[in-house]
Amino acid sequence: MYRILASDGLQEKAINNLIELGFEVENKHYDKEVLGEVLKDFDALVVRSATKVTKEVIEATKGGKLKLVVRAGVGIDNIDVAAAKEAGIEVRNTPNASSDSVAELALAHMFAVARFVGTSNYTMRNGEWNKKKYEGIEIGGKTLGIIGMGRIGRALANKATALGMTVVYNDMFGKQDDLAYDFLELNDLLKISDFISLHVPYDKNAGALIGKDQLNIMKDGSYIINCARGKVVDESALLEALNSGKIAGAGIDVFEVEPNTNEILVNHPRVSCTPHIGASTLEAQDRIGDEVVSVIKNFFK
Ligand code: MLT
User: Fold this and answer.
1) Topology (CATH) of 3-97+282-300
2) What is the pTM of this model?
3) Do the Cβ atoms of 95 and 151 come closer than 8 Å?
4) Distance (Å, whole) CA 156 – CA 107
5) What is the model's pLDDT at position 110?
6) What CATH architecture applies to the domain 99-273?
7) What region does 133 belong to: left with phi over 0, alpha with psi -120 to 50, or beta?
8) 210 with 224: CB under 8 angstroms?
């Protein structure tokens, strides 16, 4: 019988489906010091983002039976993929399940920064009535520049179009022939967009995709939304741009350090923030669970 360790939790339905398919499932978190040793006795590991599958963890599994690591989510930056590959361990993710949830959160942040939703919430709770201060803008009729036109970017483009926005995009793979939106080079997109939304992985060799230079190129008074990875945007450059008014607002779900330590940024009145909850919906988690089951079933069939 194949043994599966779910170290960051897994939907009950998914666990039951795996058991019905004949897998043995242990739903338990182990500290990194012991994880590798524990994994010697498991065929597959399922993680969300809390468990870091580092080179050390992979090396400690040597001589064991681990064959597969499944990331229940999109980003695989908490897994040392090269070390896993070298050890003959496959790494898979669930790329389809959370696109709509992340796209909806990006939109939620766009509305929040355009209409001061978060800021007016907490100032009202402090007894303030700042009606005059919170004159916002409509998002309909504005240009949304999407950076990264994968599944999430495409889901956002559909929804934003339905809200009356004009979508332009940039993608590391260039123009995509099946899309009717305008493809622009990054700097051109930054120059004309009222909102930009990022949907790209973090490339540690390239560093932050949006730093001081890119923020300077952006349209005066534009907005930036990051529901991708914290390090894709240079937080200190962003803070400077928010303080100078160059950038009118930022919607941020992901941070350079998580849990976040940048108190100044999250307390900025023009920032709408959430604690990395892009995929945290009942629907996405349910679909992620189904996708995890199907990945494991197909791998071991
Ligand atoms: C993902 O990569 O799936 C999302 O950022 C959500 C998460 O990491 O929990």
Assistant:
1) Rossmann fold (3.40.50)
2) 0.95
3) yes
4) 8
5) 98
6) 3-Layer(aba) Sandwich (3.40)
7) alpha
8) yes
- Residue 166 CA to residue 191 CA, distance in Å, equals 14
Sequence spans of domains, the chain? 3-97+282-300, 99-273
Residue 56 pLDDT: 97
Assess whether the C-beta atom of 49 lies below 6 angstroms from ligand 1.
Answer: yes
Gap between the Cα atoms of 81 and 71, Å rounded: 11
Identify the pLDDT of residue 5.
98
Identical topology for domains 3-97+282-300 and 99-273:
yes
Q: Which H or E run includes 290? A: helix 282-300
98 touches ligand 1 (CB under 6 Å): yes
- Which amino acid makes up residue 61? T
Ligand 1 and 201: CB distance under 6 A: no
Percent of the chain with pLDDT strictly greater than 70: 100
Label residue 299 by pLDDT band (50, 70, 90): very high
The token duo for 27 is: 């739903």
pLDDT digits (tens, 9 = 90+) for 82-126: 999 999 999 999 999 999 999 999 999 999 999 999 999 999 999
DSSP one-letter code for 79: B
What is the rounded radius of gyration, in angstroms, for the C-alpha atoms of the chain? 21
Q: What is the mean pLDDT of residues 30-58?
A: 97
**278: CA distance to ligand 1 center in Å?**
7
Q: What's the pLDDT at 166?
A: 98
Q: Residue of the nearest CA to atom 6 in ligand 1?
A: 279
